[in-house]
Design brief:
The complex is a heterodimer of chains A (about 90) and B (about 425). Chain A has about 90 residues and is mainly beta. Chain A is about 10% helix and about 35% strand. In chain A, the strands form two sheets. A four-stranded antiparallel beta sheet of chain A has the order 3-4-5-6, with no helix packed on it. Chain A starts with a strand and ends in an 11-residue tail after the last strand. In chain B, strands 1, 2, 8, 9, 10, 11, 17 and 18 form an eight-stranded mixed beta sheet that branches. In chain B, strands 5-6-4-13-14-15-12-16 form an eight-stranded mixed beta sheet, sandwiched between helices. Chain B has a two-stranded antiparallel ribbon with strand order 3-7. The two termini of chain B are about 40 Å apart. Chain B is built from twelve helices and 18 strands. Chain B is globular and about 70 Å long. Chain B is of the alpha/beta class and about 425 residues long. Helix content of chain B is about 30%, strand content about 25%. Classes of the chains: A mainly beta (about 90), B alpha/beta (about 425). At the A-B interface, strand 3 and helix 1 of A face helix 8, strand 12, strand 15 and helix 11 of B.
């Protein structure tokens, strides 16, 4: 069971949250090519290791935030707000 | 290869079972192969087997990071069926099912394919509308499905709670009689043994770590934990780890890796002689030959490479099963585990050449790769050997994410993966 630190509600169990996938994906302008649009819509880093991802406290305050989590161990290294830059990668 | 037969069983029985040769040789890598296949699961081994058998390409190595049958091939719930919605998917899964039907003879290895039938229960008026749509599409394309009334579901699955007050009331369902289960280890062992007999070398405990490319950009060698292995062509057939090897080769995939859990109970007397799946909950269950109830449900819904599974989903799946099958409520759970599955947005596989010439891939099967092993191997072998995709494999291109020609089985057949 993951314990996730919601920036507004504090630590809660993972069943209160929804993962929204990879974070920091910038939407390209509508004039972009089909390849750029496909990359934006479908193609993902899907790393084995640290992943910067969006989560929502669905059964709580319902707000979105970012999490830096290791996909091998599920350990959460950092929680940070939407719009903030990702924390520096762990050594 | 020493053929298995009733006579060989008797002969070995008289010798105290001490004369069986190993099913495949323990190979050490040669400096060069025509084709290197990365991933010694069902799909990778089947690819090697069909390369050798159908296309006479026998200078082939299969690299397996762990041991044969230790990944998803040894972690699935062994269900084989072909009840999909779109014609492309039905052609693909019918090919797999048809190959499975004669696989024991083909491989000279008993894969214990038991066509006990699949019964899918609908739990609402909307489910019944979906079922009517699905079986209409499937019957038009020749899949053996039939609609079932509530009474027929109850008769086929007596343990399922079909009472009016059930938490998940049963409104009816459908059945595919040719569906069933097979012994998952036997499928990989059978392919490994048959491929080995045709000259394929199977190299276990050998991890692919990178790729070497020629000045033209084409694949030249695979870098591994056992050193460099030169090749004309290579294929990535590694399910949940597809993105990791794609990153090593310098491209991205429309894949996200999730953990999918499975469970088995203590063995009990025969209580369920079909595979049963319910639309409202996505929980599926069958009974193994040893008597254990083998079951599973949905994915752990965040990206993961940890092969263990989380507690909330485990509780949900086990609780739902006990709710739907009241008599299972006091059976003890024997084991729980997870495999890492490669989920794509339209829940359909990718069988294609990658952006790197000479490097091929087979991935994106999500939660349903086991049932497709013969087809995945057959179609990828065709693509590697001929340089062109097979007609059945062509719709499952990587390019469909750019053209928009998705085969959306998540919407079509309600398949979660």
């Amino acid at each position: 069971m993951l314990l996730i630190e919601c920036p507004w509600c504090g630590p809660r169990g993972e069943h209160e949250f929804t993962c929204g996938g990879e974070s920091h994906i910038a939407r390209p302008p509508l004039s972009c090519s089909d390849v750029e649009w496909a990359n934006y819509l479908f193609f993902r880093i899907n790393p084995k290791g640290e992943h910067f991802e969006r989560w929502r406290h669905t059964h709580g305050c319902r707000l979105w935030f970012n999490v830096a989590r290791d996909t091998r161990t599920h350990a959460i290294r950092a929680v940070y707000r939407m719009g903030e830059a990702p924390p520096r990668t762990a050594p | 290869m020493k053929r298995y037969s009733a006579l060989s069983l008797i002969e070995q029985g008289l010798r105290g079972q001490k004369g069986w040769p190993p099913a495949w040789r323990a190979a050490t890598p040669k400096p060069r192969y025509d084709v290197v296949i990365i991933g010694g699961g069902g799909h990778g081994l089947a690819t090697a087997y069909y390369l050798a058998k159908n296309h006479r390409v026998t200078n082939v190595a299969v690299l397996e990071r762990g041991w044969i049958g230790g990944g998803n091939s040894g972690r699935n719930t062994t269900i084989i069926r072909s009840n999909y919605y779109y014609p492309q998917s039905i052609a693909l899964f019918e090919l797999a099912l048809t190959l499975y039907e004669r696989l024991s003879l083909d491989l000279n290895f008993n894969i214990m394919f038991s066509q006990r039938g699949l019964v899918v229960a609908g739990n609402s008026r909307h489910d019944m509308e979906t079922i009517a749509k699905l079986i209409g599409a499937m019957q038009l394309l020749g899949v053996d499905v039939e609609e079932l009334s509530v009474e027929e579901v109850r008769k086929a699955v007596p343990a399922l709670d079909c009472s009016p007050n059930a938490r998940y009331p049963v409104w009816g369902g459908f059945r595919q009689r040719r569906a069933g289960t097979a012994r998952h280890d036997a499928v990989v062992w059978g392919y490994a043994r048959a491929a080995d007999a045709l000259g394929v070398e199977i190299i276990e405990n050998c991890e692919a770590t990178g790729f070497e490319r020629s000045p033209t950009g084409a694949i030249k060698a695979v870098e591994t934990s056992h050193g460099r292995i030169a090749c004309d062509k290579a294929a990535i057939v590694v399910a949940g780890h597809s993105s990791v090897l794609a990153a090593a080769a310098g491209f991205r995939l429309p894949v996200t890796s999730y953990a999918l859990q499975a469970f088995v109970s203590e063995p009990v007397k025969p209580v369920l002689d079909v595979v049963c799946w319910t639309l409202a909950t996505g929980v599926y269950v069958s009974q193994s030959d040893k008597g254990g109830l083998v079951f599973g449900g949905g994915l752990d819904l965040y990206p993961s490479y940890a092969q263990r599974g989380n507690l909330p989903i485990a509780q949900s799946v086990v609780g739902t099963l006990a709710e739907q099958f009241p008599s299972f409520g006091r059976i003890r759970l024997l084991r729980q585990w997870a495999g890492i599955v490669d989920v794509v947005h339209d829940s359909s596989p990718i069988i294609d050449e990658t952006p790197i010439p000479g490097l091929y891939m087979n991935c994106g099967w999500g939660t349903g790769g086991f049932k497709a092993i013969p087809a995945g191997g057959y179609l990828l072998a065709h693509h590697i050997a001929t340089g062109r995709s097979h007609d059945i494999g062509a719709p499952f291109s990587l390019n469909r994410f750019r053209t928009g020609a998705l085969i959306d089985e998540a919407a079509g057949a309600g398949i979660a993966h």
